[in-house]
Structure prediction request, 159 residues.
Amino acid sequence: MQSSEETTTTRAADTEAQKAPAGTAAPAPVEDSGAAAEAQARPKRTLGVSEAAVQAIRAQLAKRGTPEGAIRVGIRGGGCSGFSYVIEFEDNPPRPGDLVLEFAEPDRPTVRVLCDKKSIIYLSGSVLDWEKTLMFQGFKFKNPNEATRCGCGHSFTVA
Prediction:
């Protein structure tokens, strides 16, 4: 039985059963520390990460000098519309209950994306993407749970 203090991870079977949206990278298989029966009983909450976002994360971690680090995504209360997206560097191990997505490529550092269990409620089904236009360069969430988004694009409300 998986305790609430263990880290939640994605597995190859999870990613096959729940196909990522087109253009998203599939997480690499990770050892599952919980019982299979309990994992099947819980609803699967995950988020997608586009290939462009994986490459941008890898570049940002390398530029920072911490290629073995991770990126933590989540939400916080506040902002123009109620909730704000959060994307931060994470140098510590995953917290208990974190969703851990790992993206591995041969001869390159593995990219890890972490999300706390409260934030995944609002981010479930979302895709983290990297966008580069003439006016904007950065990460952007494509979140189906958004009811409205403010003009700046950094905060949102849910229905």
In short: Confidence is low (pLDDT under 50) at residues 1-22, 29-33, 35-39.
